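Write out the 3D structure for:
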Amino acid sequence: MASLQNLICSVSKRLVAPNHAVTAKLNGAPPSVVSASSSEASMDEKIVTKRRLALLGAGALATGLLKTSSAIAEEVAENFKSYVDAKDGYSYLYPAEWRDFDFLGHDSAFKDRNLALQCVRVGFTPTDKTDIRDLGPMDEAIFNLVNNVYAAPNQIPSIYDMQERTVDGKNYWTFEYDLEAPGYGVSAFATVAIGNGRYYTLIVTANERRWSRLRNRLKVVADSFKISDLTA
């Protein structure tokens, strides 16, 4: 229950304190988005439309937060399940109807029973850094991560809002992005954090065409990710 309340408080603070969110502006891209294809008018129009849908979704979420804390907690408990890996030091929520599956190179993963692109996965790699801020400025680090690690050569990445939160002294970066390829697009949230000598990454995705309907729900998954200290 405490972790759910922390999650609700974290989302609430972002809605009433927008200065806690960082909007990327790199390489001359519009203030609301970082896009590798900002020179293309059709892509810009698509990005603006996507951004408006995202803002509408945020408004719906704000309305939902008018419910009592107990009602929200009950809704989360009913619609989500908790995955806890004490051995590897992390936990998160995932939609209750999703099932686990093996995702190559990742430690845990769950997906929709019918739509494979709707999934969440967590992986980690060794690091000598102790905090996510050690990667440098958040906007620059995330820009490099999405463009140079997440995006395949045939995909055009666009990055939306970036947010930092601190829970129990640990810092987390959560950001939204698209990967566009000929004929299809994937939208996602990612949360990254460093602890236990590991660089943790949670990514939750969906088909771009379904993103406006799923965005708020998948944001709950991204915001729920937490790391915990490993015991000897």
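The helical segments are 2-16, 41-64, 69-79, 138-150, 211-224.
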